[in-house]
Amino acid sequence: MMSRLGPSSTGNPAMTLIARRALLAASALPLAGPAFAQAYPTRPLRLIVGFGAGGISDLVARLVAEAAGQAIGQSIIVENRTGAGGTIAAEAAARATPDGYTLLFGGPSLFAINAVMMGGSVADTAKELAPVLPLASTPHVLVVRPQLGVTDLAGFVARARQRNGEMTWSTAGVGTSPHQTMVLLQSLSGARFTPVHYRSGAAGVQAVLSGEVDVTAEATAVVVEHIRAGTLVGLVAAAPERLDLLPNVPSSKEAGMAELENGSLSALLVPRATPQPVRDKLREAFGTALASATLRQRLAQQGTFALGGDAAALEGMIATEVAKWRPLLAGLAG
Questions:
Q1: Which residue stretches of 190-333 are H helix?
Q2: Where is the secretion signal located (predicted)?
Q3: DSSP 8-class letter at 331
Q4: Is residue 172 classed as helix, strand or coil in its secondary structure?
Q5: How many other C-beta atoms are found inside a 10 Å radius of the C-beta of residue 131?
Q6: Counting Cβ atoms within 10 Å, is residue 4 exposed (0-12), middle (13-18) or buried (19+)?
Q7: Under CATH, what is the fold of the domain 18-137+265-332?
Q8: What is the pLDDT tens value at each position of the chain, 334 positions in all?
Q9: Is residue 282 within 8 Å of residue 270, measured between CB atoms?
Q10: DSSP states along 119-141
Q11: Cβ neighbours, 10 Å, residue 207
Q12: DSSP string for residues in 216-247
């Protein structure tokens, strides 16, 4: 497995998980009163994103942050903390003061994917974060360079089988949604690929364009203009229906592999000790933003569907993702 990622953070080994949670909970006690919740927020908020500028996570996070900031009455500043498939960002959010001013733009993959593939420390980090609500969903499109000489999914799979693991696949890091799509396609088709990990989905797409790697699966917004320009070939949309932005790219069902459905799922999370009244304010503000016609239209232009809901809805999504992905990824852990 090749990598274009920097080293991951190991945290402070001297502080146990239990001690850290106790410290966070104690620090949150003065914040839990009604006066604090009523006044909150009194300054700008920070939304940590685990992937680089130009990728779908960054694009969606900035759109949602702008609208939610208007709803809550304070600016929400996006901060990119790249590396380790979003785990570095999750660690930074989990260790932040649980006062509602540090938020994580994460997703079910932290619980269902990273915790399986990266070991116990990541699972511990996931336990230190609390779900607030689902944010958005963006289906993937499988793309290759025209020079590869394939124009449909069946031809691509046949070529990959012939090359027997030599075909390279760019991802945004171990356990990220492009990596998930690769693993899912391997399971469904019997083909094998070599993953090459980059800091963002956009960087992975550039690697395909330059010929550094053969294939990737990325969000519609990241690949749509390249497909329209003919510099990339869209083989299949990993969705049950064709996408409005790419009406000429077949759905997974039309391509003969209906189970090939995946994309980028995003959610809002906070440090576990964040007071419930603050979580409620965040859920209300982000929910209001996601329900607005303006934001929904702006997301649709990125090939993304607004979600919304509450913590229970997000917990249900996490449970579904865990059930789907753990059996596929357990063999790749380490």
A1: 201-210, 220-229, 276-291, 293-300, 311-329
A2: 1-37
A3: G
A4: coil
A5: 25
A6: middle
A7: D-Maltodextrin-Binding Protein; domain 2 (3.40.190)
A8: 444 444 334 444 434 444 454 455 445 445 555 666 678 999 999 999 998 887 788 999 999 999 999 999 999 999 999 877 788 999 999 999 999 999 999 977 777 666 666 555 666 777 899 999 999 999 999 999 999 999 999 999 999 999 999 999 998 877 778 888 999 999 999 999 999 988 778 889 999 999 999 999 998 888 999 999 999 999 999 998 899 899 999 999 999 999 999 988 899 999 999 999 999 999 999 999 999 999 999 998 888 989 999 999 999 988 888 888 878 876 654 3
A9: yes
A10: -HHHHHHHHTEEEEEEEEEEEEE
A11: 20
A12: EEEEHHHHHHHHHHTSSEEEEESSSS-BTTBT
Please tell me whether residue 278 adopts helix, strand or coil conformation: helix
Please report the sign of the dihedral spanned by the C-alpha atoms of residue 34, residue 287, residue 200, residue 10: positive
Chain position carrying tokens 């990541």: 122
CB 61 within 8 A of CB 49: yes
Taking the alpha carbons of 20, 26, 28, 32 in that order, is the dihedral positive or negative?
A: positive
Tokens standing for residue 242: 């064709």
Give the DSSP H/E element, type plus range, for residue 98.
Answer: none
Cβ 170 vs Cβ 204: under 8 Å: yes
The residues with which 215 forms a beta bridge, in sequence order, are 144, 169
Cβ within 8 Å of residue 95, ≥6 positions away: 11, 20, 128, 271
Angle at 202 between CA 187 and CA 76, to 5 degrees: 110
Closest by CA to 180, choosing from 195, 163, 198, 191, is 195
Which regions of the chain carry the CATH code 3.40.190.150?
18-137+265-332
Residues of the chain with CATH 3.40.190.10: 139-237
Show the tokens assigned to 6.
């920097």
- Report pTM: 0.77
In sign, the C-alpha dihedral spanning 68, 291, 287, 103 is negative
Dihedral angle, C-alpha 80, 124, 323, 300, nearest 10 °: -20
